[in-house]
Amino acid sequence: MSGLHFQVVHLNRRKWIEASTYPHFTMIGQSLGSVYLAWEALNKFTPQFYFDTSGYAFTYPLARLFGCKVICYTHYPTISSDMVERVKQRSSMYNNDSRIAGSIWLSRCKILYYSIFSWLYGLVGSCAHLVMVNSSWTRSHIENIWRIPERTRRVYPPCDTSALQMLPLERSTTPPILISVAQFRPEKAHGLQLEAFAIALKKLSPEFPKPKLQFVGSCRNKEDLERLQKLKDRSTELHIDELVEFHKDISYRDLVQLLGGAVAGLHSMTDEHFGISVVEYMAAGAIPIAHKSAGPMMDIVLDEDGQQTGFLASEKEEYAEAIVKVLRMPEAERHEMATAARKRAQRFSEHRFHEDFTDAACAILGI
């Protein structure tokens, strides 16, 4: 591919893909906005290969009209059957606010909207010449909606855990530390972790050293800051505030140090497409306690050489039980599990990503 030519194109209409531009009907608004943005880009420079890594599938037919080979790396389907099912069940979650969940009429309207959008999403997605997805969960949804399994490949994302792999597996910290690494966003369900931690504390004997829970994350805006304050208030309500610490916007070096002292890492996002934070726990030697869904369940927290690598849970009681198991685990047993988890984390390395990406794309790129 010695004849490759690269050109940077500056666009002036980025506001058309910002979620804030569309207070309502956000998915279709951003999707149509992306077509407008792609039109500007393709008129300024028409590439041989159109490579989308942002999930703007509605631009694929346009790119094909311009004569491009369309390749995409999809992290998360814009819409999935799980999202539709939550609306049908009238479950209040991050993709379905309580006002809609509480109304039969609004729920039916949203189901119709989702059904139409899902059909359109399948139509435009099928225009891709090559689809790479980041997990088994994403692949199952993309194959179900786009219906081009012969052009769909799973390529795990690159996780740079080299610094974490160097941490010692021994955890001699007293009291024992649990860690939760994630942005302070609603879908991360930090409140569930707080409640599970409170339940776990009650299950421990009085003479057991009181563990600490450390939240590590970043705040993008005012809403995230408000969520962080609510978590602090909730820890006070649960009478565990003396055992809970919050670290906001810390450096990666400080994060590595905190992970190196943790016996377990908590993850509670439902249907997270992959779960890089879970891989980081495993690489650092912290036993993962992750949500029993999507990436963590299907790809990450699986046995390695017949050895358990962590725990999966969905309800707060299950999380509490797993927390207690890790805290009471003999050091030799914990070390054995952490060793297996670290080995499994190597499956998601940058080197593995390079190999799988090259293998998937070599035919269409001519390399």
From TrEMBL:
Sorted alphabetically, which keywords does the UniProt record give?
Answer: Endoplasmic reticulum, Glycosyltransferase, Membrane, Transferase, Transmembrane, Transmembrane helix
Q: Does Membrane count among this protein's keywords?
A: yes
Q: Where mainly found?
A: endoplasmic reticulum
Identify one Gene Ontology CC term for this UniProt entry: endoplasmic reticulum membrane
Q: Name one GO biological process term.
A: protein N-linked glycosylation
Which GO molecular function annotations are given, in alphabetical order?
GDP-Man:Man(3)GlcNAc(2)-PP-Dol alpha-1,2-mannosyltransferase activity
Q: What is this protein called?
A: GDP-Man:Man(3)GlcNAc(2)-PP-Dol alpha-1,2-mannosyltransferase
